[in-house]
Write a structure and sequence with these properties.
Blueprint lengths: L13 H60 L32 E12 L2 E3 L8 E6 L6 E8 L4 E2 L16 H4 L8 E2 L3 E7 L7 H7 L1 E6 L7 E3 L11 E3 L3 E2 L13 E8 L7 E8 L5 E9 L2 E3 L1 E14 L2 E10 L52
Parallel strand pairs: 5-6, 8-10, 9-12
Antiparallel strand pairs: 1-16, 2-14, 3-13, 4-12, 4-14, 7-8, 7-13, 11-12, 14-15, 16-17
Length: about 375
C-alpha cells in the first residue's frame, strides 16, 4: 500500500486586507476633500453675499440721502410714488442698479417718498432740549395717543406713579432704575405738551392758555387717559400712567420677544382742529422712541406735511436691500425747533431786545415791559 501525505497550505490574506483599508482611506480622504472644497466655496459665497449686501445697503442709503437733500431744499416737494425720474427730486437718479458704480453693478433701483403717515415716530428725545414739531393732520383730531419705549435697551417699568423725593420732585435716576434686571434700563418719563393752532395770530397769553402739558409716566398701573383743558399749561392730572407692558405691534418700535411699551391718551381735544404744536422731552435723558397717533372717533387720522417716509431699494449685482426712514418736513434743515422759533435754556428769566424800532426795550418772563426793579432787567 502506498501512503499519500497531504499538506494543507494556509492562505495569507493580509495583502487583501491592506488593500481594502487603503481603498477606504482613499475614499475618506476624497470625501473630506470634497467636503472641505464645498465648505470653502460656501464661505466664499457667504463672504461675497455679505459684501454685496453691504454694498446694496449703502446704495439704498445713498438714495435716502439724495431724497433728503431734495427735501431740505424744498420741503414741499410732495410725494414720489413711482420708481422713475421726478422733477421734484432732481438728485434722485434711479437705474437698473449700476448708477453708482457701473463696473461693480452697484446703485439704487427705486426711491419712493410719502408725505402722509398714519403716525409720527421720533427717537432722538433728550432731557435738555425740547423736540418741537407742528403736527398737521388731514382731518380734525379729537384725541391723541402717545406710546413710548426705550430706543435700544430692554424696558424696565415702575410699578406705580411715584415721584416723591423731598418735596415732590422726581426721584434720582439711581432710585428710578432700582429693581431693573441686568441689561435692562428704566423706561424714561416724558414731558409732553400740546397746543392747538388754527392759523390765526396768537399772543403769548393765548398760547400759554391753550397749551396743555402732562408727564407721561412709565408705570404699569394707574389711569392712562387725561382730558385736555385750557388751563394755562397746568394739567388737571399732571401724571398719566402708561399701562406699560405688552401691546399690539407699532411701526418703528423694537421687539424683544414680544412688543412692549407704554401708552397714554389725551382726550377731548378742541373740536375742529387739525394742526397742533407738540413739544416733548425726557426727564432722565434716556434715548426714547415716541409714537404719536391721532384719532377721530375710532378712525385713525393721517398726518400730512409733518414727516416724510422715504423707501429706497439698493442693488449690488443680484443682491437687493430695502430700507425705510423718516425725516421731518417742518424742520427740514435738521433742527428740532420750528421755523422762526427761538430756543433757550430752562432758565426762569428771559430778556429780549427788538431792533431797530426798540433797541433797548427788555421784556420779562410775563411778556410785559421790564421795570427798574425787575429781576430780569439789566444792561446788555
Amino acid at each position: 500500500m502506498i501512503g499519500i501525505s497531504m499538506k494543507r497550505e494556509k492562505l495569507n490574506q493580509s495583502g487583501f486586507a491592506s488593500l481594502v483599508v487603503g481603498l477606504i482611506l482613499v475614499l475618506v480622504l476624497a470625501l473630506m476633500t470634497v467636503g472641505f472644497s464645498a465648505l470653502v466655496r460656501r464661505e466664499q459665497s457667504n463672504t461675497l453675499n455679505k459684501q454685496l449686501s453691504s454694498q446694496a445697503y449703502y446704495a439704498a442709503e445713498t438714495g435716502i440721502n439724495d431724497a433728503v437733500r431734495d427735501l431740505q431744499l424744498d420741503p414741499h416737494a410732495g410725494a414720489k410714488t413711482q420708481c422713475t425720474k421726478s422733477n421734484s427730486y432732481p438728485d434722485v437718479v434711479e437705474s437698473n442698479g449700476d448708477a453708482l458704480d457701473s463696473s461693480s453693478q452697484v446703485g439704487y433701483t427705486c426711491v419712493l417718498v410719502s408725505v402722509a403717515t398714519n403716525d409720527l415716530l421720533y427717537n432722538t428725545l433728550s432731557n435738555t432740549d425740547w423736540m418741537a414739531v407742528q403736527a398737521t393732520s388731514e382731518n380734525p383730531i379729537d384725541h391723541m395717543t402717545i406710546a413710548w419705549q426705550n430706543y435700544s435697551s430692554p424696558d424696565c417699568y415702575q410699578s406705580s406713579v411715584n415721584t416723591a423725593n423731598g418735596g415732590g420732585n422726581f426721584k434720582p435716576l439711581s432710585s428710578f432704575k432700582s429693581g431693573c434686571a441686568v441689561g435692562a434700563a428704566p423706561t424714561d418719563a416724558v414731558e409732553f405738551s400740546i397746543t392747538p393752532l388754527d392759523g390765526a395770530h396768537y399772543d403769548r397769553a393765548t398760547l400759554l392758555k391753550n397749551t396743555y402739558q402732562v408727564i407721561l409716566y412709565p408705570s404699569t398701573t394707574g389711569s392712562t387717559t387725561t382730558t385736555y383743558s385750557q388751563a394755562g399749561g397746568v394739567a388737571s392730572q399732571p401724571y398719566i400712567s402708561g399701562a406699560c407692558g405688552p401691546h399690539a405691534k407699532i411701526g418703528g418700535f423694537t421687539q424683544d420677544g414680544g412688543i412692549s411699551y407704554c401708552q397714554a391718551t389725551i382726550n377731548s381735544l378742541p373740536a375742529g382742529y387739525n394742526r397742533f404744536l407738540v413739544a416733548m422731552k425726557t426727564v432722565y435723558g434716556t434715548q426714547t422712541n415716541v409714537n404719536i397717533t391721532g384719532f377721530s372717533g375710532t378712525n385713525k387720522i393721517s398726518f400730512t406735511g409733518t414727516q416724510a417716509v422715504i423707501d429706497a431699494t439698493g442693488k449690488a449685482q443680484n443682491v437687493l436691500r430695502r430700507i425705510q426712514v423718516r425725516v421731518p418736513l417742518t424742520a427740514a434743515a435738521g433742527t428740532t425747533n420750528l421755523p422762526n422759533a427761538l430756543s433757550g435754556g430752562d432758565g426762569i428769566c428771559k430778556r429780549m431786545v427788538s431792533s431797530p424800532s426798540s433797541p433797548t426795550t427788555f421784556y420779562n418772563v410775563a411778556g410785559t415791559t421790564a421795570g427798574a426793579g425787575d429781576s430780569c432787567n439789566g444792561a446788555l
